[in-house]
Automatic annotation (TrEMBL):
This is Sulfotransferase. Keywords: Transferase. InterPro entries: NST/OST, P-loop_NTPase. It comes from Truepera radiovictrix (strain DSM 17093 / CIP 108686 / LMG 22925 / RQ-24). SUPFAM superfamilies: P-loop containing nucleoside triphosphate hydrolases. It comes from the Bacteria. Pfam families: Sulfotransfer_3 (PF13469). GO terms for molecular function: sulfotransferase activity.
């Protein structure tokens, strides 16, 4: 059903661009900076998850809470598309888009479905050292527990148990999927031409955020004069507690992600060896 007061003869508006992730890679920073530009419209909610695809989820139990994510949008359901269009109803003549980091995990087939519905959409992918990204995600999601790791009163047995739990969490298939850049890039490049793909490296954002935001403005054909004064702000957003990565966790993550990092070096022609020297 259309929202009250909306004319049925008005063409639905869909996003001009998608931010597809990855999580813990400055996507919230990007959302906040773009939202401040007068030529950009973003939904009030950062992550719409409209294109998430159904996949089996094992109920997770932690600290007495059980959670699953059983609900997904049906891309063949017109009512769901009306809901999606309603999220951009206030865009007017502005560029509009949405940022959902989980889109980095979409299968190649699902990406094809996205492009079938949004054939001209532009895509932005934030890329961060997958080892640092994984640890940042763990620190954030386990922030109530991970501080105990540095507690001098914590017994060795409990410390080992916590380390084992962190390794298991770091190597969980869902978490690994979010940092699988070869898969993500391959899936999106299979359907999106290079002129409609923009890659932002987290290291470049940290080094010169203003320059990276100007790249975004150029990519989206925005007036750079509309970039907010905070464009050069490097303050962390959604920061995680500062805790050093345990050596055992680091070893497992380095072993897993080293081939991915070498793939990125070859794909982008840049030296990323420092990513293995955390």
């Amino acid at each position: 059903m259309w929202a009250a007061g909306r004319r049925k003869d008005v063409a639905p508006r869909y996003p001009d661009f998608l931010g597809i992730g990855t999580p813990r890679s400055a996507t919230t920073w990007l959302h906040l900076r773009l939202a401040a530009h007068p030529g950009v419209f973003l939904p009030a909610r950062k992550e719409l998850h409209f294109f998430n695809e159904p996949r089996p989820h094992t109920p997770c139990r932690f600290s007495g809470a059980t959670w699953t994510r059983p609900l997904y949008f049906d891309l063949e359901n017109p009512a769901h598309w009306r809901w999606y269009a309603a999220q951009f109803a206030g865009a007017g003549e502005r560029r509009c888009g949405e940022i959902t980091p989980d889109y980095a995990t979409l299968s190649r087939e699902r990406v094809g479905e996205v492009l079938r519905h949004l054939p001209e959409v532009k895509v932005i992918l934030n890329i961060r050292n997958p080892i640092a990204r994984a640890w940042s995600g763990l620190r954030y999601s386990w922030r109530r527990h991970i501080g105990r790791y540095t507690d001098r009163q914590l017994g060795e047995r409990l410390r080992e148990e916590l380390t084992d739990a962190l390794i298991a969490a770091a190597l969980h298939p869902e978490r690994l999927l979010r940092g699988d850049y070869p898969r993500t890039i391959g899936n999106w490049e299979a359907h999106v031409p290079p002129e409609r793909l923009l890659y932002l490296f987290y290291d470049d954002i940290a080094r010169d955020p203003g320059a990276e935001l100007r790249r975004v403005a150029d990519f989206l054909e925005l007036d750079p004069a509309g970039l907010p004064p905070s464009a050069a702000d490097t303050s962390p957003v959604n920061d995680a507690p500062a805790t050093d990565m345990p050596d055992a966790v680091k070893e497992r993550l380095v072993a897993y992600y080293a081939p991915h990092i070498r793939w990125l070096e070859a794909h982008f022609g840049r030296d990323l060896s420092a990513w293995l020297e955390l």
